[in-house]
Amino acid sequence: MKIFTQRLEQVSEHTPFQIVELNFDTRQKSRFRATLNHGEDIGVDLPRTGILRSGSFIATAQADIIRVDAKAEQLMQVRAENPFELLKAAYHLGNRHVPLMLTPDALYFEPDHVLAEMVLGLGLEVCEVEHPFEPESGAYAQHSHDHRLSPIKALHHVHT
Q1: CB 3.0 to 4.6 Å from 9: which of 4, 33, 86, 159, for a disulfide?
Q2: What is the structure's pLDDT at 139?
Q3: Residue 61: how many other CB atoms lie within 10 Å
Q4: Is 45 among the domain residues?
Q5: How many domains does the structure of the chain reveal?
Q6: Which residues on neighbouring strands pair with residue 69, listed in sequence order?
Q7: CA–CA separation, 47 and 21 (whole Å)
Q8: Is the residue at 121 inside a domain?
Q9: Same domain as 44, residue 87
Q10: Where is the UreE urease accessory N-terminal domain (predicted)?
């Protein structure tokens, strides 16, 4: 079994890699086992330097590379008739310190009937959906850039 031990800051657009889809809970761990999309079992033993964001790259000491993608999971989706109502829901959910994914049209959080009832009480729509979960990292996070928005770069750099 291959063991992936290094985070990569960037990879060349021509660098071959495999893909693994992981839920948010697994992407928060530094040590776990997983199965690549093509069926190969792998191990991961990374330094404790934060969560794996969707689009992150990790490697073995032999330079095997995988890209980590956020796996679709059961979430609560919040929608509103206008941006202010969505902002108000984000404020109230944020006050409860729950992992929250923000998009221009919706908010997403892990299933919690108490929070869902609170949001419904604010007059917003809440439903369960299957969606990749990439919550905000927080204002004090030490993550220097966001993999969701950055394209694969031309340089290859191992981040330790």
Answers
A1: 159
A2: 54
A3: 10
A4: yes
A5: 2
A6: 21
A7: 20
A8: yes
A9: no
A10: 1-66
DSSP of the chain: -EEE-EEEEE--TT---EEEEE-HHHHT-SEEEEE-TTS-EEEEE--SSSPPPTTEEEE-TT--EEEEEEPEEEEEEEE-SSHHHHHHHHHHHHTTT---EE-SS-EEE---HHHHHHHHHTT-EEEEEEEE------TT----S-TTTPPPPSS-EEE-
User: Mind listing the pLDDT tens digit for each residue in 64-116?
Assistant: 999 999 999 999 999 999 999 999 999 999 999 999 999 999 999 999 999 99
Q: What amino acid occupies position 94?
A: G
Expressed as residue numbers, the domain containing 61 is: 2-70
Of 77, 118, 117, 78, whose CA–CA distance to 95 is shortest?
A: 118
Residue type, 136: E
Q: pTM score, two decimals?
A: 0.79
- Tokens of residue 20, six digits: 């693994």
Q: Give the Cα separation of 123 and 143 in Å (integer).
A: 34
